[in-house]
Task: inverse folding
């Protein structure tokens, strides 16, 4: 809606709202609805006038702080605050305003052109006209929603970049195995990552009558039924209590998905095969069958027992679950195997402050606890330092600093995600790794253009909606510019003196 079209109309209706002492109006034809302030997800390093994004009945809604857009002082949200949802070029955006006043009819002939300077620091670029309210001195400034929602030289729905290749495609790891480590009772165990489909929070479970005590029930996972087996009860290790750390690891057993409950998931990690040993002979026969190997780490201070669930959850039990209608509907179970696995993606979901982010599991080599990091003089502000990972010097990026977020103190949940990016390894510090999530094809939606218009946010490649959650998808290859990656490469190299043996002079 441009100024000439506004003035040419005999009559228009305006939704008017307040920002501080000023009054504004938007053509009602551009307004979809008016809502209370929804729960917002902050997008790091988005334009300062973007307050965040929200899930509006299944659609991603970017919310613009209209005060910031006009250079006005910020104001806390209160009971009068509203979001005006507008439609611009087929895309929705929300305008956060102090309060909505009324819907008023305006004679097109009474609309005057906006002055070049409006005072109070207001930018007149998106103001197409001014109308005086009858019987008062009150002026209502008419806004063009399209100009207000679009950044400089950007459309609300810019063309998104093409998909980027996975960092680990065709990577050979013949001398390593990749596992998920977790706690059952007081012991640490591991499962081959190849058998793990995803890791989820402990869900609501439907109890099964006359089932063994270690079969907790069934859940519906993406419209298919899945049995839940409590590994703690099955291994007779610890109690079956549930807390915020309890997780369900979804594994594939003979083409059937089964969830196993554990006390806490620790890490996704790669183990050199030379760290693996057979179970000691002192184990009894039954325990020896369950444990396929022992990983000794940290000079023997950390022991991980590797499990093969095929030896713990007997195939006959799975067949009974599959065929016995008193447990599971056979047709539902049969629908669960990986029909669309080729198009699904696994995503490692982690937390920074109160927001959730996700990266494709193909970009993550392993996840480790926070360990000793050596500071590097004159390193960029987002670089925490370097650490030694099995003989490799790994630079570590503090993702909070990279995203210009307030720094936070490390906790026992702080993790380093080790990724191989730009042909080099790098560690990424995050507040907490939450889960490994299976993302069906098509669930990764484009980030609204108004949020992602800056090169600073090019690393955000979409939004995943799952229930009420919004997870920002990141491409770790794009979190730094090319010259910044070159700086990291230099940090990963040993000093020149260490690389080149000293030459002895001949006498």
Result:
């Amino acid at each position: 809606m441009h100024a000439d079209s506004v003035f040419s109309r005999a009559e228009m209706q305006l939704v008017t709202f307040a920002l501080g002492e000023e009054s504004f109006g938007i053509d009602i034809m551009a307004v979809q609805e008016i809502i209370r302030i929804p729960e917002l997800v902050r997008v790091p390093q988005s334009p300062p006038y973007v307050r965040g994004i929200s899930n509006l009945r299944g659609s991603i809604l970017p919310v613009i702080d209209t005060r910031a857009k006009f250079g006005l002082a910020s104001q806390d949200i209160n009971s009068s605050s509203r979001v005006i949802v507008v439609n611009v070029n087929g895309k929705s955006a929300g305008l956060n305003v102090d309060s909505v006043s009324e819907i008023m009819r305006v004679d097109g002939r009474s609309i005057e052109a906006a002055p070049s300077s409006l005072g109070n620091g207001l930018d007149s670029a998106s103001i197409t006209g001014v109308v005086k309210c009858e019987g008062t001195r009150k002026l209502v400034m008419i806004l063009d929603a399209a100009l207000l929602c679009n950044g400089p030289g950007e459309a609300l729905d810019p063309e998104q970049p093409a998909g980027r290749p996975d960092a680990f495609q065709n990577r050979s790891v013949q001398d390593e195995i990749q596992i998920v480590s977790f706690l059952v009772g007081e012991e640490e165990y591991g499962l081959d990552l190849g058998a793990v489909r995803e890791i989820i929070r402990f869900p609501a479970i439907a109890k099964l009558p006359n089932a063994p005590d270690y079969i907790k029930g069934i859940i519906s996972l993406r419209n298919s039924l899945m049995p839940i087996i409590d590994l703690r009860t099955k291994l007779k290790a610890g109690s079956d209590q549930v807390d915020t750390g309890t997780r369900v690891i979804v594994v594939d057993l003979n083409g059937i998905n089964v969830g196993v409950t554990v006390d806490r998931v620790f890490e996704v990690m790669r183990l050199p095969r030379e760290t693996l040993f057979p179970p000691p002979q002192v184990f009894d026969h039954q325990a020896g069958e369950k444990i396929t190997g022992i990983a000794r780490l940290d000079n023997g201070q950390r022991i991980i027992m590797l499990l093969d669930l095929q030896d713990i959850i007997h195939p006959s039990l799975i067949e009974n679950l599959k065929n016995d209608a008193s447990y599971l509907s056979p047709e539902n179970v049969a629908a669960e195997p990986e029909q669309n696995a080729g198009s699904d993606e696994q995503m490692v979901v982690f937390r920074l402050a109160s927001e959730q982010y996700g990266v494709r599991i193909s970009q993550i080599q392993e996840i480790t606890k926070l360990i000793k990091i050596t500071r590097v003089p004159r390193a960029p502000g987002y670089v925490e330092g370097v650490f030694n990972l099995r003989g490799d010097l790994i630079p570590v990026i503090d993702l909070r600093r990279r995203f210009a977020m307030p720094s936070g103190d490390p906790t026992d949940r702080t993790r380093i995600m080790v990724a191989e990016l730009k042909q080099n390894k790098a560690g990424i510090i995050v507040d907490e790794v939450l889960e490994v999530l299976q993302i069906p094809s098509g669930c990764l939606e484009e980030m609204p253009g108004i949020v992602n218009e800056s090169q600073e946010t090019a690393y955000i490649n979409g939004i995943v909606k799952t229930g009420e959650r919004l997870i920002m998808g990141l491409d770790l290859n794009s979190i730094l510019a090319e010259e910044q990656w070159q700086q990291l490469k230099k940090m990963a190299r040993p000093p020149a003196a260490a690389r080149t043996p000293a030459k002895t002079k001949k006498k």
